[in-house]
Amino acid sequence: MDDKEFYLDAIRDVVPTHKEDQIQDVFYSFLELEHLYDSAIEIVKTQLNIFDNEFSMRFQRNPIHNIESRIKSPQSIVGKLRRKNFPISPESAKKNLFDIAGVRVICYYIEDIYAIADLLTKHSSFKLRKIKDYIRNPKKNGYRSFHIILDAPVYTSTGMELAPVEIQIRTIAMDFWASLEHQLHYKSTGDIKIAASLTTELKECSEIISSIDERMQDMFKKINSL
């Protein structure tokens, strides 16, 4: 089933009497919603690239290794609204979901993470919604990353609208761990013994990777002080 059919089926579940004109109206509202969040992502990515280029010019190095982005699929949006017992509508999604648009920033060093986060949160165009520092306060499973939710201003032909973007900032090592943890956790689902043993090992690996991150940061400082 493609995205359009999934949206249409979900909308038919909630539109009374299955009026086709109402269904089409709601469907196009979802398309407008996707465009809004896609535009918000591009605005955040553009600003991140501006910061990265400025660092390159001023300090002869780039703090950002890579930038990735994604928009939640129709299945994820509708599924989350249903799980949380929210209405299935674009208005409900905008009001209740703050992770539809996501940007992941991969940095070289831990200090780069905080530098980029500080620049983003102090930027006059963005409105800060939430910060979660999982680097200084890792999750129980060992997950480390810096999370920010910002409202980005999107200017269209009808005016300006704010759209939330969830930004995850982490080092290459943190991203390596998170990617493998996600894959291993998914593979081990259903086997309680394997899942339990993996939890312990993954936590240990997280500590090792965190130590390596700190050592690399220290080496970088020593090299630059010569």
Q: Helices, strands, pairings?
A:
Elements: H1 3-14, H2 20-59, E1 64-71, H3 74-83, H4 90-96, E2 101-107, H5 110-122, E3 127-133, E4 146-156, E5 159-171, H6 172-188, H7 192-225
Parallel strand pairs: 2-5
Antiparallel strand pairs: 1-2, 3-4, 4-5
Please explain how this structure is put together.
This protein is an alpha+beta fold and 226 residues long. 59% of the residues lie in helices and 20% in strands. The chain contains seven helices and five strands, in the order ααβααβαβββαα. A five-stranded mixed sheet has the order 1-2-5-4-3. α1 crosses α2 and α6 runs antiparallel to α7. The longest helix is centred in the N-terminal third of the chain and has 40 residues. The radius of gyration is 21 Å and the shape is flat. The mean pLDDT is 88.
Structural features:
226 residues; 5-stranded mixed beta sheet
Largest sheet: 5 strands, mixed
Helix content: 55-70%
Give the neighbour order of strands across the main sheet: 1-2-5-4-3
Number of strands: 5
Rg over CA atoms = 21 Å
Which strand-content bin applies to the residues? 15-25%
Shape: flat
Number of helices: 7
Structural class: alpha+beta
